[in-house]
Records
---
Amino acid sequence: MIVSLKWLSSFIDLSGLSTEDIIDQMVRCGFEVESVEKIGEGTNLIVGEVLECKDHPNSDHLHVTKTDIGSEVLNIVCGAPNCRKGLKVIVAQVGAKLPGGEIKAGVIRGEASNGMLCSLKELGVPENLLSDDSPSQNGIEELDDRFNVGDTDILNKLGYEDTILDVSIYANRPDCLSMFAMAKEIGAILNRKVDLPEFDGKANIGEKSSFRLSSESKNCPHFLAKVVRNVTIKESPDWMKEHLRANGIKCINNLVDISNYVMLETGQPLHFYDLRTNPNLNITVKDDYEGKYTALDGIEYSIEKGDLMITSDDMPIGIAGIMGGDNTKILDDTTGLIIEAALFDHAQIRRTSNRLGLQTEAAARYAKGLEPLSQNKAVDRAVDLLIQCADANGFEETVEYGKPDYEPYEISESLSHLNTLIGKEYTMDEAVDVMHRLGFDCRVEGDMFITSIPSYRAMDLKIPEDIDEEIVRLTDFDDLTSTLPLMPQTVGKLSTAQKNRRVIRNLLTSHGFNETSNYTLVSDDYIKDALLPAGEAVAMVSPLSDARKYCRTSLMNSLLEALGYNLDHGNSNVKLFEISKVYAKDIEEERLGVLMEGNLMESKVKHLSIVSDFYVIKGIITEILSKMGYEMGRVAVKENSLDTVHFHPYQSAVLMMDNKLLGIFGKIHPVYAKSKKLDDVYYAEVMLDVVNNAKASKVKAPVISKYPSVSRDVSVLVRDDVKASDLINAIKKAGGNLVKSSKVFDVYQGEHIEEGYKSVSLNIVYENKEKTLKTEDVNPVHEAVVNAIMNKFDGRQR
């Protein structure tokens, strides 16, 4: 935010304060001053008149002048092309100190020179503050009849004697992007009275209007328009031009200057349309326009759907919140205008501004947010200045679409809470005084002081602690008593989630896996192809690129991208995992992604390898759960009917824990893998929040039986739709506690097996922890197991 001390002094009495004093106070109260720049500086300056101007005898571009400064006539050599007899000029006398150095008497190519005829640029006035036709653009400044020979108050009369502060505005204080709010803030900091112009209600004039105003976009909730039938184009008053120049804004004419001036004062961007360009008196805000549009800067921009456009009779007349259109601009012969003041969605304005590469003062203010009532204030002030500076009349009533989203509110705080929080003994008078310095109405009720929050502070003052912050900010931080914080004693230990992460990392790295850390922000393609998405994806308001537009809702595509990168760089047998959070609207989940390609383990010397497959990745996941203390009896492995787009339908499964979805694992579907230019890949994604929220059992070492076990094999012929897990469950149920374990060691379909059936071979281990089992103990149980299989699954023993 550019703050002109000269403009500021029109609202606050700054006498007795140096620039350094003001800056120190602002910094102490939370405003960082990034730079200080003087507009126009120089000592020992005086107005002179060129009495004689001759060509230098030894130069083809220099002039030798005799210049009257009142007290004497000086010989001065000048190289400006516009130097001539009779010109009133700025003379820097010998000893004058200018931004470029000190002026000294000397001899230039044989001619004495006792001073310097100056341009404004040589006095430190930035080139962008000079008008295009200013003599100082290419020569010395030409003074008008306001100046007399011998005058010394030159820069002040020209309006170029000012000090400019570049103040950094924090995200929670967009109100300070207006000069009025900044004046109130600095007045509170300096504890000095602030006198702002009165203009409230100035726009409440005019005859009934036929103007039609509407919005077809949710991103424009409030819009004001006012027709002014008669205005006069002329030069703006000097004070307005000075303030605009100080903010780096070129002066055009009184109408354009007023719209810019009101924006600087109130923080609300305004736009004036030439009334002749809108004969049917209507404006509609749309966000579905597509095509080319030429803005005020004469550049053609590509407008896309979503960009807010101001239209009239379905024709665009401005890029909402950023820049007006070339087809409706104020011209030198404009006699009537339409005032526009609107509230647009800050995120959409930022997106459009960034995409178009069109950074304007209006866009910067919209992007940071506007105070709720700024549209009404801006129209009031615009009408006030149009009457003063443009002889405006023929007003129509203000037309309004929507209403400001603001209701007056109060914040109640107690003195005891304030003192407890800040650690200082404030009195009620001190607290109330700060509120009054800020311009807030405040009343006291016992230990409570109740503050009415004005609309321009509604964006950052929400809770009692915000009021406390204002009080401590505007009183001396150095007066705060140093106290030790009260810290409750707690036992330092890992949370369940931290313990589980440690177990996962230790186990997977011991199996040769590498942990990855991928981007949380991903492209639209990743969102569309998400595995078990957490929910509706959250889009960034202002993404750096389309590849980093959304928060990812699953981990799989990120790990597949990392795998592709490793394979492209010659790595093989890639084993990766990632523990990270995924995000959706109002949802945050922690997940584990495990990916395998090639061999889990390999020994070329011994010609041994463990090839990655369904059973390997299943074993890894179940081992992780077991190590974390979750008994496998609580975990169910079920057929995958959840996602057969990303996973092979016959080589994948779903994990359930306590009847909750825990994850999915298996072989990536060959079609999907091919789309990623990959071959055989095995992947698992586990919802760690389900694990972390479940109560784990203590990990116990199994007791080794003192007695030998008995192993029996059995082969049964069953239908091919019978699941191995169902067979194992039937064995456990029929064999009871005597069955130590059971597993499938062979499945056969083919010759000698009738169609629709399969041969399943199982190994069953029987064990009694209290005695040695004999044949007569095992046979009845084994027979019961076989009969159970036969009866339940209509099987036959082979």
---
Amino acid sequence: MAPRKEIMKLARMIGGTPGKLNKLTEESPEYYALECVLDDEMAKCAQCAGLRKPRTVGYIAKKYGHPLEETREICHKLADTGVFTMWTDKKTGEEMCHVEIFAPGTLERMVGNREQLAAHPEIGRAFDEYTGNTGAKLAATLPMGSSLMRVIPIERSIEGLPNVEEYEKISYYLDKFDTFSVSDCSCRASRRIMGDGCGHLETDMCLHLGPCAEFYADTGKAHYVTKEEAKELLRRAEDNGLMHSIPNIHEPGDSDSICSCCACSCFGLRIGLLYGARDAISSNFKAEVDEEKCVACGQCVETCPGKALLLGQKLETKEELPPEPKGYEKITNSTWNEKKWDSDYRTNRKNTVETGTAPCKAACPAHVAVQGYLRKAAEGDFTEALKLIKKENPFPAVCGRICNHVCETECSRACIDDAVAIDDVKKFIADKDLDEKTRYVPPMVNQIGKPYDEKIAIIGSGPAGLTAAFFLAEKGYKPTVFEKAKSPGGMLMHGIPSFRLQKDVVKAEIDIIEEMGAEIKCGVEVGKDVTIQELRDQGYKGFFIAIGAQDGHALGIPGEDAEGVQAGVKFVAQDSKAKLKGKTVVVGGGNVAVDVARTAVRVTNDDVEMYCLEGADEMPAADDEVAEAKEEGVKVNNGWGPKEILTDDKGKVRGIVFKKCVSVFDNQGKFNPKYDEKETIEVECKNVLMSVGQSIDWGEVLRGEDIKLNKNGTIPVDAQTLQTEVSDIFAGGDVVTGPAFAIDAIAHGHEAAVSLHRAVHAGQNLLYGRDNRIFKSLNKDNADFERTGFDNTKRQSVKRDKSKAKTFEDGRLDLTLDQIKKETARCLKCGSTKVDEYLCVGCGLCTTRCSFDAIHLVKKTDAWGMEFERLPIAVAKQVVKRTGNIIGKKLSGGKE
């Protein structure tokens, strides 16, 4: 069918881009966005207003040739659709009409009509397509600071700076007007309708000022707010990692909207972020880092919308570090084509430079800002240190006691003498959580400033499940945690003996999660008492399965079902209530086996021995844990694997036979034990505690769900999003990884919360704009520690309360305050943030995240936009200038 003539005329009028770059057809977004909602008379009427010329209704009626009231009615229809902006002139009292360019302007207002967008999702697609087409064509031609939407810095990031113009401050626009309204973000609404959202939701994101505010509110596209509410909306957006931008098609200071944007969905800033026109969208400011103050906490890196910040190192090196590969060319001095776009800009976020950063942060599965909280502890600011830990880990007191602390294993300080006692410092800091008066309960931080209504179910209350609950509650949800046991905590509460992790420590940190808004329902076995489908029927929209690996692992050897044989994890769960008579043999060499043996020592007066496949230097158990077991009287026998459990005529254990293990791993490093079947020993005993791994008891959790398990009993999920085969079900922790450490489960819980937030809101993609959480450690072999310099203090050790030896109380004491000062001084301060000035858009978000005063904005340019009508001349000049830059670069051999 041929295109409608009047619609096409109007599309050409509104789409008056510089140089008339758009040749329109019925497939053009300018056409089909209008065609789906306008009749021909509306199109004719709109043409009478002209482009960007405020007209009275009377003027339009006269030119249109229709009666005033009939024209007024059509004008109001055009305002409802978003083609017209209408307001009442305060001096004359006349109704004014205005047609703006497609973007920023008409398409945003068309998307702003929620009912219209729902009925015609092609309007959202047109907004995306139009801005994409225009951005691709204009990117290489725009002068500095002339993009049609431009970043304006967060005001607190430029306070006190010299040479700041008034119109570079958000307060200038708020003070200029007395009427304000707020609407949904049209970019994110369009992304949602296309199923293309990034998890940043659209509600109440765009602030409108003066007559624009009246138009948006009076046509139902926004609601009025006070000036103070407007300030709060902007501040809340900043707290949620959103930058600000303003329409840049007027003279400086004449903008009438302030948008709170994200890099992963904004169409207006895409011309710089995708198509490369960084100079055009950036404010006049750039970020600079004070490396002496920087602690590589990563808060600025994670929030940087321009991907201009990466974690690097500040250690002196033996060989000079190579420059960071740019991965881009500058649009201002390069020939430009699609191959040079950052096509994957919504998914290719990095955290570190190629040469790596502080090993502690990189190695930690949760990527806790170790260097950061050590600095805060050194300053005596323990509450701020605790806040920083809880950015990634809601169980610092737990982890301070039982973490496998790979941060210490990888600590650069160990190359000099001993690793920094990171966990002992963390325990000192986190013990504030044990006291209701000093504990830190994170506030709710989300875009809407109130709790979300969407219901989320978490199945299992171990570290993975409760971590997901923590971060969901922080985001404003009230997740429900279903736990089949009588009390929450999972393996933290029921799988670790009290002498290592007191129950009140676990309870204190669970109490915080409940205080934040999570509800924990114990004694409810999902699949048996209620199915996932029944929970869906009750309104639950997302599910996270985190039931852990809570069962023992059978070896299938003769006698394994004899009286006196127990699974180690079941035995430990009894804690001080456990009972044993006679000699006990623990089979296994991991941390759980050590816990089992140390628990056994406490409930029997007879001998306790461990037998494991591995040699003393191969044991998976931590060295300090093995040492403590030996101190308590446990005998460790290396290099033996169980062959048979011997029983008496009553079916009770009387001994166990072991065979010699000659190797544990094959040439590829895989677990593949080999035995000498001829060399065996028989050990007399009354109890055998099997601690050779754990298995998952799925029960009926998955009843009715089309999910197939892996051969090893784990559940298959996407490695990043943790989504299962069923789109609303996610899983994490031991049910995905197999038996692992608490910190691994915590990392999964955090990622699950990110996914669940997106999953329960329509149209949100699980990957776009997501932090990939990939960190690379610096090369310690290249570090020059002598040139770097370091404190010669030796590692501080915790003392023990000897009266609690071989009891079920934790005898480990905290470091003293003096020891904390000495230990934190041992940190080599390996990491710091690096800035790519060209990529920086000058939004100032980084400065709001830094609690170390280490990053600031500095004014670098004094460019600004202009009236849209003057842009073609500026573009022509820029084309000439850029051509000269390209020629000059070629003549200089590629040097800039």
---
Amino acid sequence: MLWYKQNIEQLYKVLETSDNGLSNDDAVNRLEEYGLNKLTVKKDSIWKIILEPFKNMFVAVLIVAATVSLLSHEFIDAIIIATIIIINFTIYYFQRYATTRVLRSLSKNNIQENNVIRGSKQQSVCSTDLVPGDILIINEGEKIPADARIVYVDNFQVDESSLTGESVPVHKHVSTFELTKQIFEQDNMVFQGTYALAGTAKVLVVETGGRTEYGKIAKLSTGDVSKSPVQEKIDKMVTLLIKVTAGLAIVVFLLSLARGIPAAESLRFVLSMAVSAVPEGLPVALTVIIVLGMRRMAKQKALVQSFKAIEDVGLVTTIATDKTGTLTKNHLKVVADWSLNNKNVSDITGLTIDTSKKQFDPIDQAILESIKPNKLSKIDKIYPFDISIRMSGAFIKKDKAIYIKGSPEHILAKSKLTVEQRHKAESALHELTSNGYRVIAFGNYKLKGEPLIDLSLINKDDIEFIGLLAFADELRPEAKEAIESAQNAGISVRLITGDHYETAFNIGKQLGIASHPNQVIQGIDLPKNTPSLVENIGDKTVFARILPEDKFKILNALKQTEITAMTGDGVNDVPALASAHVGIAMGSGSDIAKAAAGIILLDDNFSTIVKAIAEGRKIFDNIRRMLFYLLSTSLGEVLTMIGALLFGLPLPVTAIQILWINLVTDTAMVLPLGTEPAEDGYMNRPPRLPKAPLMNRILLTRTVLIGITMAVITLITVAILTQQGFDISYIQTISFSMLIVAQWANAFNARSEFKSSFSRLKRMNYGLVFGLVVAICLQSLVMFGPLSSIFEIQTISVFHLLLGSIVMIISILAVSELHKISVKANN
């Protein structure tokens, strides 16, 4: 029902109540019918939380590998794989718990006591027990607990910025509308989650809980949760890898049978090859580097709630930001003034405010901040704001005058001005409003007798016009620089606000978001269907007079061509926060906004978003480094196995040796690659295209070249040693060592995609050095220590070990450096 269109008597009849309120029995019955007045935001079930770390392709492969090892009675293999899986989900659960703990500390207690009239008596009732039909008394400073229709007001003003996005207080009135009105135009209604700034009101509760405007928006935040673009690309890559591996496994199995190898041994050979093809260490590596990234971001006041958010933020191509509380301080400030005949308007602005009482009106607060205390005076009578004439005033007996402030148009209409003076005032008003400022006019009325009963008795030409005062929501000082940094990184910034066209454009112009009116579009001008919306908003950077449902549609349209980040702090931002690839909420914002977001800015600072994007880009680049490292070494192992089969050579490594390479050595080296310092200029390049593959042609080519090099060097060594008559265990020990050394050299290669890896020596990765030391120590235990028997290691010649290692290292580094030189020459 459109509550704002019904008169009060009709509403009393519909809701079966009266000015005396509900009886206590009726209230109890309605509470059973309508439920508690609180929002229920959908939360993940315990089973979903438990299963979450297992829902990716890599972990599925690990589980299958562990199962096959158990069925093959390879218990050590199975234990190693199971340990990796346990480490993976332990890290995930620990990080989730840490994030939840911080969120609990941020959570606000929304339950409060409210004054309600029931059975003709005023009583205190918990906000969760309010029901439709209750008569509620609201005083200044209180949070409004339900949607309600105004029955009585006394100079009542409400801050609706959390719902509509507008920071200017709204004067509320007892009225009835005939025409359809938007939320921000319904000045006879109050809404849950907004705040009473001044005055008192008696209201009739019409909606509670999930049926309020606040609740309807909350439901929009519980949509589908899609996979991260990074995770989707990794899953596609792994799926393709598995299909290729399965095809190769069948071919290899048939070839081994054709060579006369027994079926059991052929199957074991195929399983070994399959294990070597899939980089089992990647799930743990991804989990660890993302958790480390989340912790680094937390130190910079950005709390990341999900792995998906931190994966996505580095790919962001556009930021759609709210204005209030995000780019601005949500704090009105006097920014300009204009006076007629060189009069000083600031001389009388303070005379319109009763300083004996605490001021909740942001306009009055801004005036008091802008003037000196000596400009104040004792007020003998206050004339509250009158909606019919758009004015308020203050009577000062000693001056025999009423000092007036209000709508410029209404005050000008009743001011005594010459044609020239009126033209000057209207021109000044137009100039100020065209800059997007909120403008208030000031004047005074000289009394000829007793004080007026109300300001409506002032006639035309009775007011002496003094001047104009302009207000604006104060911009955050760091906002412009942060936006410029984002734009330098190739990321477009779009302002989405409920403000008027002029205000929105002016703020966009000040922040460098828009330079021409053609870049601005209003909510009423948005196309209704998605294809047209996608086409029309491509070049728009400022969106004015936007409703919550409009934001939702805009973000869905932007997602067709962009990786989107949405910032906001209010209830009005929730649908878009949930819709964006990365929802970014303010730490001081509403609980529901924080619940819908993937990242929370604990310092409410827009510049922290740029830091988060920088961290996300670094993580994305490091994921590519890790993939290159793991896939190239895995490819080298696979080609080595297949080559041995094709050329009739002995099996170069055993199954448990492959597991050691993939799960222990790989992990020791790949984790430090995930902490590699960012390359120079990484924030001055454009974002990667949303549909671009995770690994480009250059990296794929280098992956193949490194894999072939590893296989060729290993197979040549195997062939030479076989020809010299060494037994299989000796050959496998040498091959095992060479493949391990190849991975150490390849980790050094992976440090830079385009520049020489030797140039990266200037920026040491101490984690990589530590990882290398750990890998060498572990390998020493296998080669020369108590683990040698488990891994079937034979005593070998130091000369063979050093020669094979040196040749492998030089070959890997040479191929990689030559490829980088070639790429640079061709570009």
---
Amino acid sequence: MTYNFKETEQKWQKKWDDAHAFNVTEDKSKQKYYVLIEFPYPSGHGLHVGHPRPYVAMDIIARKKRMEGYNVLFPMGFDSFGLPTENYAIKNKIHPSIATKNNINTYKNQLASWGLSLDWSREVNTADPNYYKWTQWIFLQMFKHGLAYKKDMPVNWCTSCKCVLAHEEVVDGVCERCGSEVVRRDKSQWMLKITAYAQKLLDGLENLDFIERVKIQTANWIGRSVGAELDFRITVVGDTNSTLLNLSNRPDDESRADCHPPLRVFTTRPDTLFGATYMVIAPEHPIINELKDKIANYSEIQKYREDAAKKSDFERSELSNAAEKEKTGVEIKGLKAVNPVNNKEIPIFVSDYVLISYGTGAIMAVPGHDERDYAFAKKFGLPIVEVVKGGDIEKEAFTDTEAGIMVNSGFLDGLEVGDAKKKITEFLEEKKIGVETVRYKLRDWVFARQRYWGEPVPIVICPDCGFVPLPESELPLLLPNVESYELTDTGESPLSRITDWVNCKCPKCGKAAKRETDTMPGWAGSSWYFMRYCDPNNNECLASKEKLDYWMPVDWYNGGMEHTTLHLLYSRFWALFLHDIGVLSCPEPYLKRTSHGMILAEDGQKVSKSKGNSVNPDDMIDGYGADSFRLCEMFIGDFEKSTPWATSGMKGCKRFLEKVYGLIDIAKGGGVTPALEVKFHQTIKKVTNDIDALKMNTAIASMMTLLNEIYDAGSLTIDELKVFLTLLCPFAPHISEELWFLAGGKGMLSTGNWVSYDEEKTRENVVEIAVQVNGKLRGKITIDMDLPNDKALESAKSNERIKEILNDCNIVKEIVVPNKIINFVVR
């Protein structure tokens, strides 16, 4: 029979749709299994060959789990709000809402053509008012709990997108989305206090089945550090009042009129305090303005600050983290700091490698034991003091944080580093000049964009009442439909031009007020979409407690490595908050997280339409079929590693399926073919385990091997054909369904039962072993498994080639490793 893939695939896609084969409801009699794939941005003309890889892989997982008897939820939706869609709309001069609608239709047609077993009855769209009503509701709950606030701050400004970016959206000093330069601006911004959940986000990782690199990236981003926070008093050169220090009277002294505010620092190495020979503060540190009249070279400092403002946080953090990168700085003339443990005055520098947004914006510099400080001290000719013995500070800083004996450190001398940390911290706390502290690298989330295409922030700004939350009964606050949504050059949202929408009454006092015109970032809708899938049509709450309790947490979530830090961090934060206020019963939203490698273009570069190396999956499916396409996506290489696309692989997969289709012509009768029994059980075991381990390529390879053995045997039974089709079904569901039907199978194979194997029957009855003479391979023999050693030796000696070699030799020793090797030692 000839296989017509177009006719077969259209036939079974229609049958699945008509039967709602993959739609699920909550069934407490069955164990649930929630499979989640990151939903796409509908921000382009269509999906390229790189997109299907994770979708097909998770479809295979979903199909197998469904056949194993689980109640499987495998939903899909669209992350419609945000920069990708708006940038596409502006470029193509089309309204974002129209672009979203058109692109979603294209994406849905493509996804359907791949044969994915999705539950489309649960589709969500983050730009749908019925959806973003609950995004706004979550924001209001955060506002009411003190986790959403607005503050003036320096922000990352994309010169092309003309909006504020979160710190995480600046990559290598440019915009993550468009690649344009990012500069610093001062602006009032909405923030989410994710730092309040830093420890919970860190602790939660321990019991999650995330791949190790995801855990490491997340932990590094949160950046927990244990150390001490302490104050360095400031003296003004020539000011005799402020140089009179009393370490034990810090709180009282700060209230004196002649006392200048101290410089507070955080350090993970309080044990090295005696080695602090200078200080460095961030260019934005407020003490510069507070004491500008005392600074002799204020104009020089101001010029340096202006230059630093042109650099992004990323560029500056790169300077901070790399000792080999040259540091710049200016000493503040007229001010000194006082080391609190030895009362020595030390210089204060301004340098852009210190960030105001991390720590306190000031550091104590210990050049003897920090590579960055060492390089800075060498450049500016500053003292370098050894306080931990173990290295040679004439050559380099000694940076071992655990080993070494304290020297030149007063009452710490002779102590090991660990003991010194404890003793100095006790000293600082006793003298009330410091305290043990835990700090995090994580910063609060910039939660506002000066764009049109996003969720309106449901806050009214009243001259008398301040920031007033919109009553929940007025949600959703609809995004007004406007003709002009292009960006403003002033940095304000396009919504600011819509006066009829902006001007309103204060919900609290009734006086004239204005709406907030910033919109939420694209991350907002994607931070909770997995919950909405549980109950997508609920108008009373974001999802019913009963349905959330049934489906959550997600059992297996797959997505790109580029989203492991940001999206996982944000969505886990929202889930933890919703758990704390009683919406969600589980604190963690995902039990398992895996990530896939990218499919690159055939030239090995990243797929890009501008480079002309994009391959359209529609063309592949039209020429070879969806099943061949699915197999090729999975067979192309290790799922977790990036690999170039190869259209030539489509031909091989198509030939494999044509051979599979030919099985219907040779399948006869029932029962088992003795020559194939072991191989069938081995393949069932291999495919079952490989799917669970995301080793789709080796699972396919094992089915190809079995297929060859079937043809070598010349026949198989109908029962064996059905087993083979069951294994193949998650990978190539259309042809499997068709052959199942032709073989007389009952019902749809996709909703049938998975097959099991007998461990005993996976073991070969015979084994091929190597025969060596004096350690060199001389031949191979096939013998019965677990054959006694004397019988194995007889079989080896009777082999014509081995017999010839041993004929004129004196056998000194015979070595038998059962089922593996025989070695004759001869003279």
